[in-house]
Structures are given as C-alpha cells and as structure tokens.
C-alpha cells in the first residue's frame, strides 16, 4: 500500500465532508478566486507547460498529441471561461426532489447530495484539471486527479493554482488532490481505495478503460469509444440526409461523436448514395461498402466484418445498405458502442421506433450526431461522456455528480 | 467459458430488446398470467420446495434459515400479491423527462429506458425470483437469476412457472433466465459477461458481496449491511426518543434497517438513558456502553472499538454518549454503513444539519429507521436496498431499473 496515495484519499474525503456544509455563494466565490489566480499566473503555467512540450518533442509524440498538450493564452482564457460557466450553473446540491405524504403522516422525499470523492484518470489535455475541479468543487465532491506523465508539469502547476485559490477562499485545499506518481501502480492503488473513493472515471483510450474495469473495486463510469451511426431511412429527405451525414463525418472526424458507419435503406440508396459520394469525395473521405452498397458505388473498397466495429477517428466511413429499418436498428445495437446514433426520416412512426429501440446514450432524429456534448445539450461543462447505462448516459454534467438520498420527516412514527 | 451460461446471457439480451417494444398493457397482462399460473401450480411449488426443506434439514441449516426457505400457501399468496402490486405501478419505460429548446432549434430531452439485462445473485428466499421477475418484466429488462444451492428446487420451479406465463402471454420466455449451476464458478462466469449483462446486484452476506465486487467486470449495485444509528439530540422529546429507539431496535432486530448503535447527547443522557434501559431490559436487549455511558448505566458491558462497526442483527445495542451533534454525525459517517440513520430532536437547525451532513441513503428526523423499505417509501416492490451512491441510494424500485437516455429532435441541424 502506498501511504501517500491513501493519505490523499483520506484528505479528499475529509474535505468533501466540509464542502457539503457550504452554500452556493461560498463555492462560487472559490471558483472566481481560482479564475483570478489562473489569470495572475499565466507565465508560470506556460513555463511549466513548455517543460511538457519539450519532453514530448524529445519523445517524438505526434503533432496532434502535442497540440492537445499545449497551454497558450487562448487555452488559458478557455479555462477561465469554464470556471465562469460553472459559476453560472444552478447548484444541484441540496435540491429536494418531491416530498410525498405517506398514509401514516411520514413525509418522504429525496435530496440531491454529492457522490463523495471522485477519482479521475485522464490522458494528455491538462485543461481537464480545471474543468473537473470546477465541477467537483461546485457539486461539493472531493476529487483525486491522476493525469498522464506527458502532462505532469502542467497538471501539477494547475493543481497548485487551484489549491492556492481554495486556500484564499477559506475552503479546504485538499478538496482537489493530484497523484504525482504517473506509473500504472499508482492507478492500481487508487482503484482499490473503496473506503475513500466513491466513483472512478477513466477518460482515455480503450486500453486504459479495460485496465480500470478489470482492476477497480470502486464503481466505474466508463467513458468509452464512439462507434456512431447515421441511418438514412427510405423516407428521408435526400438533401437533409446529405448535409447531416456530411457534417457527422467530416466536421471533426477525430472525436467520439463523429459518424463511423452510415446505414442506408435500399429503396433510397440508388438516388442517395451517388450524390452523397460526390460530397465525401470532395472532402477526401475513404468509403468502404457492403456488397449491396457496391452494386451502386462500384469503385469503393469492401467493408469487412471488422469495419462495423471500428472507431476510425479519421476520414474513413463504412457504408451498409439495409432492407428494413429493423435491420438498421439491429446493426446499431450489435456493432455500435451505445454512444450516439441518428435517423434521417420524414416518417413519424419510423422516427419514434428508432428513438425507442436504439439502445444508445443519445438518439437523434434529423440532426447530426456531432451534437452529443455537454454544452450543446445545455449542461455547461462536462466530466466526459458516459457509455454505460448505470447512473448516467451521455454527457456527465454537474447534476450527474450528485445522487439522491432519501429524507424522511416524522413526528414519532413507528413501524408496526 | 461456460457456453450454457453465455447462451443465457445472449438469450436475455435478445429478449430485453423485444420487451422494450411492448406497451404497458402487454407487460401487465403477462404478470397477470404469471399470477394465475402460480395459483394453479401451488401443489407443484410446495412439493419442489419440500425437497429443499428436507435437504436443508439434513444439512443442519438453522431454523431461521429454513423458515426463510419455506413456501407455504401464505407465502404463495404473497407472491401473487406482489405481481398485482407491480401491475398497479406506473410504468417508467418511455417516460420523457423534460424536453428543452436549444437556441438552434434542437429539442433535447431525456427518456427513461431499461438498463438492459440485470444479473441478480441471491441467497435463501426463493420468493425473490417472483419479486425480481415482476419488476424486471415490467421495466422491460432481461434478468438472469442465480440463487443459492439450498433453494435450487424452489427457484427452478418458480422460474419454470414464470417462463410458462411469459410464453402464454406471447412474450419471450428467455426474458427470465436462471442458472442451475450453484457453484462459485458460475457466479464468476456471470461477472465477466459484460457484453450481455448491464448491472449485477448481489443480495446476501458480506462475503458474497466482497466476492462480487472483486471479480465483476460489470457495474455492481451493492446491497450491503446496515449499521444504523439513532441520535438522541439534546433537544429531543424523551418520550418520543424512547419509543423511536425501542422500535428501531426491538421490532425486528434481524433486518438491515434495525438500529445497531444509539448515540445520546450528554445533556439529555442522565434523564434519558435510565428510562430507556428499563424498556430495553424488558425486551431482553443486551446493552454495551462507552465510558461516558457507563457513568450513567454502570451495570452494562463495555463497548469495544469493534462494536461501533458491527451489524448485530440481534437484540444487542451499542451506546455512545456524545458531547455535540458534530461528534454524533462524525461517528455515523465514520462507523456506519451509509444505510439508514435517524435524529430525534425538536430543534429545526439540528434536524436540518443532520439531514445534510449525514452521508446515508436514508436520513430520518423523528421516525424509526425501520421505515427504510420500498413499500414504506411508496415504491411498491423492490430489488433490494442500495448502500452505494451511484445510480440509486436506498430502496431500488421499478424506476431505478431504468436510466435516462438523451433524445434529440431536429430539422436538419448541423454542428458548426
């Protein structure tokens, strides 16, 4: 057992018990002071960040990776904005959801309370520290951050600023803890601390998520890959289908809510697919089609069985032509990752059927899957996007950092 | 890998995808037919149950255990009642929770949907099969039952009747599956079937729960022990405090929501404790006190450190006298099991403080902890009582067998 890591767990738990006593004004004031401190410490943040960038270049990290790692003035402005956005959100802690009178006079209700201590394991982007701390402080949770080695200087710098702000605001500094040790053993240690951590959130690649699921004794909220589909129904408007599919694939192909497979009803395929291909060709999208698709788009590559369960995160798209909406839904439920899936249709019955039967965190009618996002859904900042069904599906915002306990008011009731 | 168990997972998943398409009438009709089948097969149920009872007697199981195992006509009536109770409950599936207009015209809402497939691992009481199947069918979930070896004949008999009812109603029989194999390996197999099971619920002793937590790759809803407290505040009415503490300890000491530790403010202890002891003595409750308590109740046993974290499930009570309400809250949060805890007080501020700061699934003001129960809280039947904070705290009813997915209605919106 690593005593240092355990101590951080104890600290965060004790701090969370203090945070729960605070009203919203006090928590918002702390967030505002943290924003001030970030603004006042721009040079320190950038100089620590340069250490990570230089280390990354030496290690030969990709340009995309180094870009995510960089903290420039624009990104620092972004972190300050997130703090202000979270200040503007309604505080969910203490919200009472219904209060029913029982026949014996008991009043039984539910009250939203913090989950307790959140452990978050994340890779690359150091601004995650600020987004996560803003959400956990406002929701009165303690948090233990465990970032990757590539961003360790940046993460430590940002955490020290958060702690400075908490202290200035009179809140416990230990509400936000960071684990300096970046080896796998420190993650394993966290995953066994069920006495001090209530929920583990892994944000990163599939390998990290599998490791966490296999080693955690603590409930995990999985933030997994996005194998997202758009189904072009036989009753779709072709112009709308083209613009939605184009947006879902091309607008930002490297993210989890981008489309990876397009499903097309065979009745609309002959008129839709050739026009769609012209647009995808312009954008340089590589198409891979099933047999039926290839009777219309003869020149495209074959889609293999593996394609249906691949998250490309790139300008590649697999296409399947289906005979019925049921075949489309079945394909999505079998090969998808229960993330975000859309139907394009003008038919009411098919729209409702898709909504009900597709087993995904976000189901769209006539819109791009790219909208699955805390901000776009009106939640403000987010902890990530959940692929699992327990507790939260889709964007995990401030409210999802709480759960409801029962509260019961009596005047001496006894069980008979 | 055990192919038979995996096949049951596949079956239950496929069945759940069928159930989600059904309206409430069809699901209720199936529950009603199952109730008919139970009534028509009383002799079969009792004759299979006798095999378990005889086996149990041979193995020398305790009288209390054999009592829980027995299925007599009264218990069979109880199972029929539960089916009718669940029919009367509002169907949560498809309920739309809010639908907000976004600035770009998207309508973003949430819709309650089944969790998918529930795996439940339980001990002794065979009527759990009926309660669980009623709840999972109504909430359109598949379920895989894994009961203990002592009740295997009864569990198989009840499951065969459920399947018969499902078939008669035209629903997939495989919506309710049971694992016949009662060794630990079959549990381990279930716990790795993350492709087919969405949630695991262990109901049983601490050892079973630890085994499940340590081996599961699937999210677990822990139904753990109940170390429940009643805190008698300095501003408590003494008569009410006596009746509430007596009820919480004595009315049914063998259950999870019974009181195990009584906390008493030192200002009220001299007038409260001697009168309370008279009542507990009449009921044969063994008292164990801290040092301060023993200055008032000299004759009681010493409470050891271990007593504070023991679930007696018996007529034994540990008593601690505290100097402040903060000391009481701190004791509960440190030694309790986050289940059910009560304050007796006439002081508004202390009541609200207790409600906010005690980190338990159910917090009571001026009522017995014995009320933590699905029926008493107005939920109807329950899957069990959750001790964890993710997804559900306290009684897990029909609604908690669903979670909310996002639904989005557009008219061609694209992300910019």
Fold blueprint:
The structure is a homodimer of 416-residue chains.
Chain A: H1 3-19, H2 24-40, H3 42-59, H4 63-69, H5 73-88, E1 96-101, E2 107-114, E3 117-122, H6 128-138, E4 142-146, H7 152-168, E5 176-178, H8 184-191, E6 199-203, H9 206-215, E7 228-232, H10 238-250, E8 259-265, H11 269-282, E9 286-289, H12 291-296, E10 301-302, E11 316-322, H13 325-335, E12 340-344, H14 348-357, E13 362-367, E14 384-386, E15 394-396, E16 402-413
Parallel strand pairs in A: 3-4, 3-6, 4-5, 7-8, 7-12, 8-11, 9-10, 9-11, 12-13
Antiparallel strand pairs in A: 1-2, 2-16, 14-15
Helix pairs in contact in A: 2-5, 2-7, 3-7, 5-6, 10-11
Helix content of chain A: 40-55%
Major beta-sheet overview of chain A: 7 strands, parallel
Q: Write down the CATH class of the largest domain in chain A.
A: Alpha Beta
Q: Which overall shape of chain A is indicated by the principal axes computed on the Cα atoms?
A: globular
CATH T-level fold name of the largest domain in chain A: Aldehyde Dehydrogenase, Chain A, domain 1
Biggest chain contact: A-B, 69 and 69 residues
Poorly predicted segments of chain A: none
Order of neighbouring strands in the sheet with most strands of chain A: 10-9-11-8-7-12-13
Counting H and I runs of at least 4 residues, what is the number of helices of chain A?
Answer: 14
User: Looking at this structure, what is the CATH superfamily of the largest domain in chain A?
Assistant: Aldehyde Dehydrogenase, Chain A, domain 1
Number of strands of chain A: 16
The total tally of domains of chain A equals 2
Distance between the termini of chain A: 48 Å
What kind of assembly state do the chains in view correspond to? homodimer
Mean pLDDT of chain A: 96
User: Helix- and strand-based class of chain A?
Assistant: alpha/beta
SSE topology string of chain A = HHHHHEEEHEHEHEHEHEHEHEEHEHEEEE
């Amino acid at each position: 057992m690593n005593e240092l890591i355990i101590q951080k767990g104890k600290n965060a738990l004790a701090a969370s018990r203090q945070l729960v006593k605070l009203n919203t004004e006090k928590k918002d004031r702390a967030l505002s002071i943290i924003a001030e401190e970030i603004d006042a410490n721009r040079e320190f943040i950038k100089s620590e960040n340069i250490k990570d960038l230089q280390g990354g270049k030496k290690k030969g990290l990709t340009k995309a990776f180094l870009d995510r790692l960089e903290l420039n003035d624009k990104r620092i402005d972004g972190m300050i904005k997130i703090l202000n956005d979270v200040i503007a959100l309604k505080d969910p802690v203490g919200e009472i959801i219904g209060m029913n009178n029982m026949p014996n006079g008991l009043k039984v209700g539910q009250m939203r309370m913090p989950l307790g201590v959140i452990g978050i394991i994340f890779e690359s982007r150091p601004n995650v520290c600020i987004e996560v701390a803003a959400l956990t402080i406002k929701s009165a949770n303690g948090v233990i951050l465990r970032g990757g080695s590539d961003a360790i200087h940046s993460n430590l710098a940002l955490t020290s600023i958060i702690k400075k702000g908490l202290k200035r605001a009179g809140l416990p500094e230990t509400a936000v803890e960071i684990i300096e040790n970046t080896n796998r053993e420190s993650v394993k240690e966290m995953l066994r601390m069920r006495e001090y951590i209530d929920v583990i959130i892994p944000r990163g690649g599939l390998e990290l998520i599998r490791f966490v699921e296999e080693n955690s004794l603590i409930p995990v909220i999985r933030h997994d890959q996005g194998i997202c589909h758009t189904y072009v129904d036989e009753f779709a408007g072709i112009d709308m289908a083209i613009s939605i599919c184009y947006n879902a694939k091309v607008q930002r192909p490297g993210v989890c809510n981008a489309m990876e497979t397009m499903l097309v009803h065979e009745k609309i395929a002959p008129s839709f697919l050739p026009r769609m291909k012209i647009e995808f060709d312009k954008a340089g999208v590589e198409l891979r089609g099933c047999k039926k698709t290839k009777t219309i788009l003869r020149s495209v590559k074959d889609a293999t069985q593996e394609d249906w369960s691949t998250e490309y995160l790139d300008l590649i798209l697999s296409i399947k032509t289906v005979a019925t909406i049921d075949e489309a839904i079945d394909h999505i439920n079998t090969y998808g990752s229960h993330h975000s899936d859309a139907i394009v249709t003008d038919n009411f019955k098919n729209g409702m059927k898709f909504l009900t039967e597709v087993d995904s965190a976000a189901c769209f009618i006539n819109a791009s899957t790219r909208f699955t996002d805390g901000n776009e859904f009106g939640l403000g900042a987010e902890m990530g996007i959940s692929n699992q069904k327990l507790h939260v599906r889709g964007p995990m915002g401030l409210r999802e950092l709480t759960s409801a306990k029962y509260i019961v008011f009596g005047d001496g009731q006894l069980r008979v």
